[in-house]
Write a structure and sequence with these properties.
The mean pLDDT is 90. The chain is an alpha/beta fold. The chain has 7 helices and 5 strands. A 5-stranded mixed sheet has the order 1-2-5-3-4, with helices on both faces. It is globular.
Length: 223
């Protein structure tokens, strides 16, 4: 299951040249779906294939309904500082990290206080959620993205794998990750995110990370 972050009335973050996160994530989700189908020979379902609004809880509900094996949510990062840049991958967990909480608050469309409240709800979900598998999937995707993008672009900063309380990952019964493909608030990375070349290279790298994870977990045969 590939999820294009935001959409419809929710534009997500807006770059300095008015590139919208919702447009970037939709283009990347479509590219990633094609790549995964080609590389892994698997069926890929998109949570949205056009510019529509979808509540966060509905996204994992769709994945659960169709019995998806993995859930990958695509996003573009943003920061008050236009100098912030880099790639990071998140999985669901309680985060005492202020930076992770701030990213989650922005993607959740909530305040930092509400992210704190969410932790109480998560206690019940932790036992059932695939935290270890999600952390392995996040690690493979992050490594592959940094390696793959660094071959074509300079200044690709590895911000690592992080844990955060993201609404969009709550309730997923399968390993799930949220990918922040670059900072739309950074002028250099905004122009990359808007380009087909960067979108395709990032998606090829994500797909490679998924393949490495799937092979290591014996979800697909090694070739």
């Amino acid at each position: 299951m590939v999820d294009a972050g935001h959409g419809g009335k929710d534009p997500g973050a807006v770059g300095p040249s008015n590139v919208l996160e919702k447009d970037v994530t939709l283009a990347m989700a479509k590219s990633l779906a094609k790549r995964l189908e080609k590389d892994l020979g698997c069926e890929v379902i998109l949570t949205r294939d056009r510019d529509v609004y979808l509540p966060l809880e509905e996204r994992t509900a769709i994945a659960n309904r169709v019995g998806a094996d993995l859930f990958i949510s695509i996003h573009a990062n943003a920061n008050k500082s236009s100098k912030a840049y880099g790639v990071e991958t998140y999985y669901l967990n309680f985060s005492k990290n202020d930076k992770a909480a701030a990213v989650a608050a922005r993607e959740n469309g909530t305040s930092l206080k509400q992210v704190g409240d969410l932790e109480l709800i998560l206690f019940d979900l932790m036992a059932n959620s695939k935290i270890n598998e999600s952390s392995r999937l996040a690690a493979e995707v992050q490594k592959s993205m940094v390696d793959g993008l660094s071959r074509s672009y300079s200044k690709v900063r590895d911000l690592g794998v992080r844990q955060g309380p993201f609404y969009v990952l709550v309730g997923a019964t399968m390993p799930s990750v949220l990918v922040e493909a670059a900072f739309i608030s950074n002028k250099r990375e905004e122009s990359r995110l808007a380009s087909r070349k960067y979108q395709d290279k990032a998606c090829a790298a994500i797909a490679k990370g998924v393949r490495n994870y799937a092979t290591s977990m014996k979800l697909v045969s090694q070739k």
